[in-house]
Amino acid sequence: MPDFQTPPELQQHLDQMRAGEAVFVSRKDFKRFFGEDDAALGRLQNFADGHNCLAVWTRSDLKLIKNPLPRPNKAARLDAGQSNFWSRCALLGTSP
After folding, report:
1. Backbone angles phi, psi at 46, to 5 degrees
2. Quick one: pLDDT at residue 78?
3. Which of 4, 71, 89, 90 qualifies as a cystine partner to 9, CB 3.0-4.6 A?
4. Rounded to 5, what percent of the chain is helix, strand, coil?
5. Is 85 left (phi over 0), alpha (psi -120 to 50) or beta?
């Protein structure tokens, strides 16, 4: 697993990935990059969407998968209370 020291290093790696490729981020790094407060999952959602990735929790890590589909825009939300990010998590049978 690559060791990302800063969010920009992770961003650069995500931008260079091809569709279907994935990278794992440790829970420790998730907390360091996104925080431990109630807004951390929202920051993750924005980060993943901004890099056209799906965020999937495994037993020990966060897995960011480059989405083969075009990046959804804000108008493509299913409804005002549920974003594409959460819908994709539900379809994959995962939860943060």
Report:
1. -65, -40
2. 47
3. 4
4. 45, 20, 40
5. alpha
Is pLDDT above 70 for 83? no
Q: What are phi and psi of 82, to 5 degrees?
A: -135, 120
- Tokens read off for 33: 């990059």
Q: Which residue has the tokens 């996104």?
A: 34
Least Cα distance to 70 among 91, 80, 81, 84 occurs for 84
Which element (helix H / strand E) includes 81? none
Average pLDDT, the chain: 79
Query: Are 76 and 82 a contacting pair, CB within 8 Å?
Result: no
As a whole number, mean pLDDT of residues 40-67 equals 91
Name the DSSP letter for residue 11: H
